[in-house]
Amino acid sequence: MKTDSLHILMQYAAARRRAAIPDRDALERWREPRILRHLDRVRAASPFYRELWQGLDTRDWRRFPEIDKKAMMEHFDTLNTAGVRREEAMELALEGERTRDFTPEIGGLTIGLSSGTSGSRGLFLVSRRERLAWTGTILQRVLPGPLLQGHRIAFFLRADSNLYGSVRSRRVAFEFYDLLHPLERHVERLNAQRPSVLAAPPSMLRLLAGEVRSGRLRIAPGHLVSMAEVLDPLDRRMIEESFGLRIHQVYQCTEGFLGASCSHGTLHLNEDVVHIEKEYVDAERKTFVPIVTDFVRFSQPIVRYRLGDLLTESPVSCACGSPFTAIERIEGRSDDLFVLPAANGTGFVTLFPDYVSRAIIGASERVEAYRAVLHAPDRLEIELDTAAAAGTEARAQTESDVENALAALCARIGAAMPETAFAPYAFVPGAVKLRRVQRRFAVNDRMEPV
């Protein structure tokens, strides 16, 4: 509709103005009153938050209790401000998953279902107004040139949504690609569309990079965007070499549009739409768990919401000059911190996913893809994809190199090396997100790090 297009254009212009905020002090002066007004509205409209914040002054909102996905789903009916029942929303979302028709709404609200990376699937609600605001903001942050220049976008996701469908306009030819469809179908459509912007999870970009190298995929996008999964250094290198482009990132999840790369390729938090507190798990490395307050989203308010992600701040300011926090890397999920027995037999030691990744990648140039899954503190499984021409003997040597690299890493941090088994690499992009490093057991009190 023309009114939608006009609203998106206005939101795009507003996002450009916000991106021009000159420094942190100006950002805080602009942001704080907007957060306070938003929280007053949420308190009035959400029974859950009204009870949770009873007796607390909005001006002290940083002291409000935190929530997480479990609390959000348990109190879904009273947390959202539209009176939508969890049972009804879940039924509609699951029907969309079955039929692959994601257009139905409840009372004008788009209903979505997260992929469940954390182990439990989450519902999200987005109003038409929020959908159009999101569209304007993401276009401003992601497109490589002015909106009116014209763009052909290929967008790969597990599920389509009215949220993403809002992007379609005369100037933006947007095509959704379902990750559940076969690769051959994607290649055929991409060759016909010839997108100027290619946006997909890194696992899919890897497959498409292979198709480019084979000559079957004949496209030359001007902009590459990684999204929905952690961008591993090994994937980044292969994808960028295949397409001859630098990868930009979008940090988007059920809880909101949290970050995007600038023109210099640095990932910045979108601190003009979300406030992010930093719960440091390693102050020296500046690695933190984000506590998110979205001061734009109202239908399903996100206030002091503890994410399970691990982010590491950049040690230097970005040359683009943005006052928004620069992120060096998304490490993965805090749930995927390896917890290993201490080598001296007393207690446990934690190991960041990034260290595991770099040890495996650095062990051998034959490693083309991998997954490291810690099933128990003393049991590790590693899936490896090695160079096809390497042969059986070379693969055995690669496995030995990887195991030795991980053993050296464990020795360096004082951890006992878990028993390690190797297997062929088996991940296929689709319904489940790729987690290169994963822990598959819960941590209990006795596993506190020494």
UniProtKB/TrEMBL annotation:
Secretion signal, residue range per the UniProt entry: none
Species, as recorded: Saccharibacillus brassicae
Gene3D superfamilies in the cross-refs: N-terminal domain of ligase-like
Name the record gives this protein: Adenylate cyclase
Species lineage: Bacteria, Bacillati, Bacillota, Bacilli, Bacillales
UniProt-listed InterPro entries: ANL_N_sf, CapK_Type1_Caps_Biosynth, CHP02304_F390_synth-rel
